[in-house]
């Protein structure tokens, strides 16, 4: 079996700091290689992989703003599909644009839908229902108009996350600085609880940051560290008392939640989207509906056994489990195309 893995090209695969889609794609490519699968990864030229790297884009367009994003995407996707006959399957992790190439090749295309940026893109997925194979990353993120072959939760390489059974007295927010992620809620929770909050993440909405985040950063109770690399992330998460994930939208998955749990740090999350599929409230974190509830749960956050958090990831969210499930899907899809 020869699998083409199509990664986004906004950031390097794996990312230096931010880039959740690129991170999951890297976990997938490296895990498949470890499982003995031949893999060609289509990603930026500076990407790091044990597979065969094929690239026409030097670096991520979010890392080099002289690169035109649309041009980079067009060159990148076409490079993969022009070589489609070399592969048994193309695994698309690049959103909806590659679907427009799928009827021009006999090679099957599997698309992991990492979330819908807008309802306006649904018609593209719907148009290719008959020739594409869709995987959702949570049951809550499914759209009733689309046909899915499976839900496969993201998995992480747990070796990269150090478990800590003790913590310091601070909270952490890890994610995009964007209204969807609820950074303003995290700040309110921290201020009302009297606890320190460390905010880490890329600023995606500058106006939101200026109005709702920056005025509260005082370097004493509320800190902003910027976007952090994996080593810094591991340290920050491991010694936090809790991760705050007070999202304002239906979270498609929530990679930072399982990363935090892998370090032993329980999340307190607004119960939106996939959160109830990941967190068992009271066992490995807390699900809440309001800022008031989050503040109240902080009073007994230490009642959550940090070992439970780690065990949840070991049992349900490892890259090994994710790889097994994707290989199973490949084996279901590829034989249907063998006669073409």
Instruction: Provide the residue-averaged pLDDT.
Output: 95
Kindly provide the radius of gyration, computed on alpha-carbon positions and rounded to a whole number of angstroms: 20 Å
- How many helix segments? 11
So, the CATH homologous superfamily of the largest domain? Answer: Glycogen Phosphorylase B
Helix content: 25-40%
CATH topology assignment of the largest domain: Rossmann fold
Tell how many strands the DSSP assignment holds.
13
Class computed from helices, strands and strand pairing: alpha/beta
Give the SSE order as H and E letters.
Answer: EHEEHEEHEEEHEHEHEHEHEHHH
Major sheet details: 7 strands, parallel
Q: What general outline do the C-alpha atoms trace?
A: globular
Written overview of the protein:
The protein has helices at 20-34, 69-81, 122-127, 183-193, 206-213, 230-238, 255-262, 275-278, 291-298, 306-316, 319-333, and strands at 2-6, 38-42, 52-54, 89-92, 109-113, 132-136, 148-151, 170-174, 196-200, 222-226, 242-245, 267-270, 286-288. The chain has 340 residues and is an alpha/beta fold. It has two domains: 2-155 and 318-337, Rossmann fold (3-Layer(aba) Sandwich); 158-316, Rossmann fold, CATH 3.40.50.2000. The strands form two sheets. A seven-stranded parallel beta sheet has the order 3-2-1-4-5-6-7, sandwiched between helices. A six-stranded parallel beta sheet has the order 10-9-8-11-12-13, with helices on both faces. Strand 5 (109-113), helix 3 (122-127) and strand 6 form a beta-alpha-beta unit. Helix 1 (20-34) crosses helix 11, helix 4 (183-193) crosses helix 9 and helix 7 packs across helix 10 (306-316). It starts with a strand and ends in a 7-residue tail after the last helix.
